[in-house]
Amino acid sequence: TFEEPALVPMPNSPGATVPPGSQLSDFFLPTLGVSFSSGADFVAVVDHYPPDPDATPTPPSIIGGTASDGTLNYSVPITAAFFATPNTSTRARTDYVQVLGDQFGLGSGTVTLEAYDYLGNLIGTDTDTDTKPFGEGPVLRIDVAGIHSVRFFSSNATVGFGNFEFGALTAVPEPAIWAMMIMGFGIVGWSMRRRGLSPRFA
Q1: Under 8 Å CB-to-CB from 10, ≥6 apart: which residues?
Q2: Which residues, in sequence order, are bridge partners of residue 47?
């Protein structure tokens, strides 16, 4: 929900430079296996409490996109990617992701969540409207196996996000491991052919 004491939310001022204490990238990587980025290599943690706590799924903080110059910019999509713990250099995947949009609807526009596998292929999307009554926000969820990363954004470039959830993570076998497995199967098959044996299956 981005309310951890070590995260210091910045004022909700689009175009302002995101201070170091409000920059979120790998804070959750060692413990939860997720990293965040946007136009910069971090997203902004923003104090969205004013004018009313009902404007935010879990007050006071939301996350917003960032421009490449490090400023708060809600028009830039947010990316979250998953990695194994404690070996965070290994990519991971999950089977569901959910995120909530802020609860200050503008009466128009849409909010979208996209899911990608570890090869970068789009494997799922979900879209909701930003037309809910005040105090109710968009709910985006994708249930599909093999999610390595997600990307979320709004069409009206004003929506922040909170309450990011995802399922259990499993490590993605690296290409070298797949190559060794395929080579092993090949050697077994070649050996059986030399002996004139046929594979048997239970």
Answers
A1: 16, 18, 19, 22, 44, 45, 46, 47, 72
A2: 61
Which of 27, 9, 106 shows the shortest CA–CA distance to 64?
Answer: 9
pLDDT at position 181, please? 47
Single pTM value for the model = 0.84
26-35 average pLDDT score: 97
Query: Do 92 and 124 touch, CB atoms closer than 8 A?
Result: no
Residues 149, 66, 131, 155: is their CA dihedral positive or negative?
negative
Integer Cα distance of 169 and 189 in angstroms:
33
Q: What is the pLDDT of residues 132-176, one digit of tens each?
A: 888 889 999 999 999 999 999 999 888 999 999 999 999 998 754
Residue with tokens 């968009």: 138
> How far apart are alpha carbons 69 and 76 in whole angstroms?
12
